[in-house]
Amino acid sequence: MHYMDSQAGNDHNFKVAKSKKKEGVIEGDHITYLNIYNKYNGIKNEGSKIAYCKTLKVNHKTLSQVTKIRLSLITELKKFGITILESDDYDDPVAILKSLLAGFF
Question: What own/partner pairs with CB < 8 Å and gap ≥ 24 does 25-31 have?
């Protein structure tokens, strides 16, 4: 019986790894997390968002909090009259990583 339980766990782990692999990219974890967030943010139905998070084994509350923080930052930038530029570089991981690294220096 123990063998069956661990086999079921292995199947589940395989399915989770396969789901995460669909979202993963060779450019690294930061871009993978960005892809997961963007897909999460594009889902309109709260139940579907929760299901998506369960599929990838990511925390729904965390992604929800990230969305709230992002909106709060946008609000603060607008209060100070800082222009928020739209970018067409969403599909350019090198530009995104350069921007991320520029924040460290």
Answer: 25/93, 27/93, 27/94, 27/97, 28/97, 30/96, 30/97, 30/100, 31/93, 31/96, 31/97
Q: What are the tens digits of pLDDT across the range 31-81?
A: 888 889 989 999 999 999 999 999 888 999 999 999 999 999 999 999 999
- The structure's pTM equals 0.70
C-alpha to C-alpha distance for 63 and 37, rounded to whole angstroms: 7
Non-local CB neighbours of 35 within 8 Å, separated by 6+ positions: 23, 25
Give the whole-angstrom CA distance, residue 50 versus residue 63: 10
**Angle at Cα 69 formed by Cα 67 and Cα 71, nearest 5°?**
70
CA distances from 83 to 75, 76, 79, 80 (A): 11, 11, 10, 9
